[in-house]
Design brief:
It comes from Devosia chinhatensis. This protein has two domains: about 10-85, Serine Threonine Protein Phosphatase 5, Tetratricopeptide repeat, CATH 1.25.40.10; about 105-295, 3-Layer(aba) Sandwich (Rossmann fold), CATH 3.40.50.150. It contains 13 helices and nine strands. It has helices at about 10-20, 25-35, 40-55, 60-70, 75-85, 95-105, 105-115, 120-130, 145-150, 165-175, 185-190, 215-220, 255-265; strands at about 135-140, 155-160, 180, 200-205, 225-235, 245, 250-255, 265-280, 285-295.
């Protein structure tokens, strides 16, 4: 592509299209050409950071996101990526809340339709396979209530927590939930009487992928489990490190990391099942479903 003044937008569009097609090297190169026209174009820098991270260049990605942050100071995604790359495992609650508030109106149709997301139902099926009563259930990151719908009458009561107010409004409309709260889950569990438990079942469907380092949240959930309680959740599977930030802005976790956390809290792995979490650019995102239980 020839360099022409004012064509940075074309470079951005082409770079995004190449990223979606899996042509990440070509995307990086075209974005760099666009930046040769305008080195301070924040959108180009943000897209370049994603390309660099997908190619394994963490240092380059961090530099690009930091430069983007200077011209996009209100961009939550850029702030999230700077934090996650400079302090591994760190998330940005404002980014997550904003993402899902904007997503609330078409969340279910897009996620379960185009992205073929089936995690809530798959976790509910695995929970039922244990043969244990699900009793009172806790839904962390309840979203629009997909877990509540999947558990249905199998749970005697369901309480839900989510960072995004508009998501919680949608969940309330379902009628599946006893108590609902807007806020950070670990803090809510520690301070709100309605969420004191104990819970026979806790579910975190597609939650840890937005948290990063999950030690604090994991401990807060386990603290509210009944003596024979079940803990069901999903992860995107990491290739190298215990916790990895991806170009999508989501985190992946290793099996060894999950197993260490389970052992620390005297939990056993009742079920672990490989599961494609969703489609992204028409390609499946590899993940896993877990059912943990207190070690009797």
């Amino acid at each position: 592509m020839a360099l022409k003044p004012g064509s940075e937008g074309l470079h951005l569009d082409l770079g995004q299209a190449l990223m979606a097609a899996g042509e990440t090297v070509k995307a990086r190169d075209i974005l760099l050409k666009g930046l040769a026209l305008n080195a301070a174009n924040g959108k180009l820098l943000r897209e370049l950071g994603q390309a660099q991270l997908q190619l394994g260049d963490r240092d380059g990605a961090l530099k690009s996101f930091r430069r983007a942050r200077k011209t996009l100071p209100d961009d939550h995604f850029t702030a999230h990526m700077v934090g996650a790359l400079s302090q591994p495992g760190t998330t940005n609650d404002a980014y997550v809340a904003d993402l899902f508030d904007k997503y609330a109106g078409h969340f279910e149709a897009h996620l379960t339709g185009k992205l073929q997301y089936r995690v809530p139902q798959a976790l509910a099926d695995l929970l039922r396979e244990t043969g244990r009563p699900l009793g009172a259930a806790l839904d962390i990151g309840c979203g629009t209530g997909l877990v509540g719908a999947a558990l249905g009458a199998s749970a005697s009561a369901i309480d839900g927590i989510d960072l995004a107010p508009r998501m919680v409004e949608k969940t309330r409309e379902t009628g599946f939930y006893r108590n609902l709260a807007v806020g950070e889950a670990a803090r809510t569990l520690a301070t709100e009487a309605d969420f004191a438990g104990p819970y026979d079942t806790a579910v975190a469907a597609d939650v840890f992928i937005y948290v990063g380092a999950i030690e604090t949240l994991f401990a807060a959930i386990v603290a509210r489990l009944a003596p024979e309680g079940l803990f069901a959740f999903s992860i995107e599977t990491a290739d190298r490190d215990d916790v990895e930030i991806r170009a999508s802005g989501r985190f992946a976790h290793s099996a060894a990391y999950i197993e260490r956390l389970a052992k620390t809290h005297d939990l056993i792995v009742l079920r672990r099942q490989d599961h494609d979490i969703r489609l992204e650019d028409n390609r499946p995102i590899k993940g896993a479903l877990y059912i943990l239980a207190r070690d009797r």
